[in-house]
Structure formats: structure tokens, C-alpha cells
Write a structure and sequence with these properties.
Growth Hormone, Chain: A; 406 residues; mainly alpha; disordered C terminus; single chain
Length: 406
């Protein structure tokens, strides 16, 4: 299982490297193509239009045809879209390729969550998701830093083509390890139907929490390089160093938090308290950080960016471990497909709204205030709507007992 976890982590690392190239290149792309800020915001958000919408059918497809197979197809699609963006010249073509990138990358979390829920014990899901979280959170650091350096030294077009081609190398080790995981597990009597999953209040609580978590994260992932260059006066190289190191902090905190949760629970601690307390700290801290970044001087803003990234990393194992535990191995693919779909509508909204707010106000202040307000929603989703964290009952619902709300 160690190799499986590391390869699943690796594909999400590649997933986030490729999607993070446009934010790192945004200033250069805008300068060379004369895109207005509003159209640049649409390009940054377009990825999420298809990425969010396709999650729900992808969860079903992964459970029906095999999560391993679906991962391979998705990788090939998004690598092709990444390379294609490097040769695109018109806004329409770029928009189409960003939509295609979203389709390809939508396979990531439903397939990975299905494979983890089936193959990893509940007591080890914290560290497994910590490893996976480290990988996909270090992806933006790698993409922003090395992508930024490559863009500065060579050209953004060559960078997209090169990174897209390198993505396909993941297929080599997966060809050895992934064979046993390519076929779908056999269905069993009593497996929950989609209707049962959708009627769980916990699903919608996790979806609301996920949306809130993602809004701030995708807001900074999409616009932090641009913000550091245009509003705080950093060079492209300076931007790459700050943004890249901030993402490293996020990834390290994810790995540490996943390990700490499993250790705490193994010693008799409450799994429910461990996960929910981290989610509460992350969302409350995000409100403070966003408001401070908006109003503070440059040194304070930079420090708070790092604090926010640390909190996001600490909470990230719970974003997917919680639904994997609640849904269990029989429903994790479809559950995470729905949850990730709802959660990633934040990626549709945050980059586009931010682009229009900047165009209207001339600065980032209101965009940070909006991100702080959205962070408050996560407290209700994770803490109030979700029951104690344990696998839910998937027995046929009893209307008199309200079993679907268990």
C-alpha cells in the first residue's frame, strides 16, 4: 500500500503543478496577448467550470469502471491540454483548453479517494491523506517556483509544453503498481444508491465546508503571484520565491497534521475532536489572515500569507479523510465526487469575482474581505452539519426514524 499511496500522491502533485502554471505566468500571458484583467480572470476560473461540474459523474464512473483506469485517461487529457495552451494565441482557444484541462483533472480526487478508502485502514487515513495533501499542496510551490523561473529564463509557452510532456512520465511506474487497482471492486448487496448518498445531511455539510476552504485557497492560488507583482511590487523572481515557499509551508503542515491526527487517535484521542478542531482553527484563522492581508503593511501581509497557508495545510487532511471515513469504501468515490464538485465551485467563483473586483476598485482589498466572509461558512459546515466522524449507516432508510440524517 505504501507504493499505492505514494503514486496517488504523485499524480495529484502533477495535477496541481499543471493547473498552477497559468497563475505563475499570468503577468507574462497578459502582456503578450493584451488580455484585459476581466478576461484573464475568466481564464483563471474557466478551469473550474468543467472541473467542478464533471466531478459528480466522474465519481460514478470511477466506481463503475475502475478508479485506476479513469486516472490514466484523465492524465492523458490534461497533459494534452497543458501542452496545447503553450501554442494557443487567441482568447477563445485558451479558454477552450482551460475547459479541457478541467475535464482531465477532474478525475483526481474522486479516484484517489476511492482507492484510499478501499485499500487503507481507517486508522491510517490521516497519514495517507497527509501524504497526499503534502503532494498536491507542494505542487503549486513547485509549479510557481520552478515554473516562474522557467518562464523568466525561457518563455511561458515553452514552459507549458515542457511541463505537460513531463506529466506523462507518471504512467511508467503506474504501469507496474496500478494493474491490481485498475479494475473496479465487485459490487455488493446493500451498497448505497446515489439517492441515499445525496440525502445525507453530512454530505452537504462537508460540501459547504469544502467550498469555504477552497474559496480562500483558490483565490490565493490564482491571484497571489499577480498580487505580489502588481500590488506589493515584487519582481517575477521574488514572487516565485515567496509564493513557492508559502506553498511549501502548506504542504509540510498537511503532512505533519495527518501524522499527528493518526498518532493522537491511536493513543485514545477522539477522531471527531481531532478533525473538527483543526477545521475550526483553520477557518477562524483564515478570517483574521484575510483581513490582515487586506489592511496591513507589506511585511505584515507577507507574514499573514504564510500563516494562512500553514492553517490551510493543517486542515487539508481532514477535507478528504472526513468524507472517506463518513462514506466508507462502498460510497467514497461518489461522495467525494459530489463534495469536490460543490467545493470546487469556489474555483469557478473566486478567480472570476476577484478579477472583476480588481477591475472595479483598482486593488485587492475588497477581494480579501470577501474571502474572509466566505471562510465563516466553513465553521457551520464542518462543525454543525456533520455528525461525529465515523462511517455512516447505509441500511435502507427508515422514514419514521429519519435514518438518512444519521
Amino acid at each position: 500500500m505504501t507504493w499505492l499511496v505514494f503514486l496517488l500522491a504523485a499524480i495529484l502533485f502533477v495535477n496541481y503543478v499543471d493547473r498552477g502554471l497559468l497563475p505563475a505566468a499570468a503577468d507574462r500571458v497578459q502582456a503578450q496577448t493584451n488580455l484585459p484583467t476581466s478576461e484573464l480572470g475568466l481564464l483563471l476560473s474557466a478551469f473550474f467550470w468543467t472541473y467542478a461540474l464533471i466531478q459528480i459523474p466522474i465519481g460514478w464512473i470511477a466506481e463503475r469502471f475502475g478508479a485506476g483506469r479513469v486516472l490514466v485517461v484523465g492524465l492523458i487529457v490534461w497533459a494534452a491540454a497543458t501542452m496545447g495552451f503553450g501554442v494557443a494565441h487567441t482568447f477563445t482557444t485558451m479558454l477552450a483548453l482551460r475547459l479541457l484541462l478541467g475535464i482531465g483533472e477532474s478525475v483526481g480526487f474522486p479516484c484517489v479517494s476511492k482507492l484510499l478508502a478501499v485499500n487503507v485502514a481507517v486508522g491510517e487515513l490521516g497519514i495517507a491523506n497527509g501524504i497526499v495533501g503534502f503532494a498536491y499542496l507542494i505542487g503549486p510551490a513547485f509549479g510557481t517556483y520552478f515554473g516562474g523561473l522557467a518562464i523568466a529564463r525561457f518563455d511561458w509557452r515553452a514552459t507549458f509544453i515542457g511541463f505537460g510532456a513531463l506529466s506523462l512520465l507518471w504512467l511508467l511506474p503506474w504501469g507496474f503498481v496500478g494493474k491490481r487497482h485498475s479494475r473496479p471492486p465487485p459490487s455488493r448487496a446493500g451498497d448505497p444508491g446515489f439517492g441515499q448518498i445525496l440525502r445525507k445531511r453530512a454530505l452537504w455539510g462537508a460540501s459547504l465546508g469544502h467550498f469555504s476552504s477552497n474559496y480562500g485557497y483558490y483565490f490565493l492560488l490564482s491571484w497571489m503571484p499577480y498580487y505580489l507583482v502588481r500590488e506589493r511590487g515584487f519582481s517575477t523572481t521574488g514572487m516565485a520565491e515567496i509564493a513557492g515557499s508559502a506553498y511549501v509551508v502548506t504542504a509540510l503542515c498537511a503532512l505533519g497534521a495527518g501524522w499527528a491526527i493518526d498518532r493522537y487517535v491511536a493513543r485514545g484521542g477522539s477522531r471527531n475532536w481531532a478533525y473538527k478542531s483543526l477545521m475550526a482553527a483553520a477557518h477562524a484563522g483564515a478570517v483574521v489572515c484575510m483581513l490582515g492581508i487586506a489592511s496591513g503593511p507589506r511585511p505584515v501581509a507577507i507574514v499573514l500569507i504564510y500563516v494562512y497557508q500553514a492553517l490551510t495545510g493543517a486542515a487539508s487532511p481532514g477535507v478528504f479523510a472526513i468524507p472517506q471515513i463518513l462514506a466508507g469504501p462502498r460510497a467514497a468515490g461518489r461522495w467525494v465526487g459530489v463534495q469536490n464538485s460543490m467545493g470546487n465551485f469556489a474555483g469557478v467563483v473566486a478567480p472570476a469575482v476577484t478579477g472583476f473586483l480588481i477591475a472595479a476598485t483598482g486593488n485587492f482589498t475588497l477581494a480579501f474581505v470577501v474571502a474572509a466572509a466566505v471562510s465563516v461558512l466553513g465553521l457551520y459546515g464542518w462543525l454543525v452539519m456533520i455528525p461525529p466522524i465515523a462511517e455512516l449507516r447505509w441500511d435502507p432508510p427508515d422514514p419514521a426514524a429519519g435514518a438518512d440524517d444519521a
